[in-house]
Amino acid sequence: MIAQATLSDVREFWDEASCGEALLLAKETDAGYAAQSAERYRLEPYIVDFANWAEMSGKQVLEIGVGLGSDHEQFARAGADLTGIDLTPRAIEHSRRRLALAGLSSDLKVGNAEALPFADGSFDHVYSWGVLHHSPDTPKAIAEAMRVLRSGGTFAIMIYNKWSLVGLMLWARYGLARGRPLTSLKAIYARHLESPGTKAYTHSEALAMIAPFADHVAIRAELTHGDLLSSGAGQRHQGRILDLARRVWPRGLLKRFAANNGLFLLISGQRI
To answer: How is 148-178 classified by DSSP, letter by letter?
Structure first.
């Protein structure tokens, strides 16, 4: 049985270090944040088109889960009327500091994605990258994102893909290699990928959460540097076997035949 992670569990995990902080942020300076952003977009170049910063000038934009603030800074530079929310004070402090260093601003606040402190239809665009699958009640968090988006507004949300190479590798290590081959992917993600209770969804499950609120929904998977073992793995997953796998991993074949098995599900569309 999988123990249900609480909001406090998730907050405690991410308040120790925001996503990418331990691996990518060397210094909390303007140069340090710039270097972190540069490496983020080198590893995940598809963010640029998905976030669509260039089209956000003058629009009321909400980012749910600002993390270290890389994407938030780009929205601010593009001239968005910007609001950001995060479960952890640590992330808000990072984002506020980096924006101040760059001479930019946003209405930043600590808050819960499952109970957004905004009126219905407050925003033209809602953006969330790799956040809502950490919420204890992801469908509720998605419904909240749709609630605060005005009719005709757009959204861009990334959540994790159940049938990913990352999931398979975690299952091989924490299920198969431990003599527990029947361990479900649900349990694997909840126990071994980032914060307690992390979830991943199939295309159809993701669509079912979004479809009641939206038109013109587009969903695609992206192979990540984690799926391709083309970067340092998260701090929870190190060892000789992983080092060996990085040297022999068939990246070319995976890009050709496993394109739909990336960890990231990119979901975009328009509010009804």
So the answer is: TEEEEEEEEEEEEBSS-HHHHHHHHHHTGGG
pLDDT tens string 222-271? 999 999 999 875 545 567 777 888 899 999 999 999 999 999 999 999 99
- Give the residue-averaged pLDDT of 50-60: 97
Neighbouring CB atoms inside 10 A of 231's CB total 16
Residues 79 and 246: their CA atoms lie apart, in Å, by 40
3-state DSSP: the chain helix, strand, coil percent, rounded to 5? 45, 20, 35
CA proximity to 221, closest of 196, 255, 173: 255
Question: For residues 69 and 33, what is the distance between their CA atoms, to the nearest angstrom?
Answer: 9
Instruction: Identify the residue whose tokens are 């953006």.
Output: 127
Q: Which residue has the tokens 């861009």?
A: 156
Q: What is the arrangement of strands in the sheet containing 60-64, beginning at the earlier edge strand?
A: 107-110, 81-86, 60-64, 123-129, 149-160, 264-271, 214-222
Please name which of 83, 74, 90 lies closest in space to residue 34, comparing C-alpha atoms.
74
- pTM score above 0.90: yes
Which residues is 63 bridged to in the sheet?
A: 84, 127
Q: Rounded distance, CA 177 to CA 182, Å?
A: 11
Work out the mean pLDDT of the chain and round it to a whole number: 95
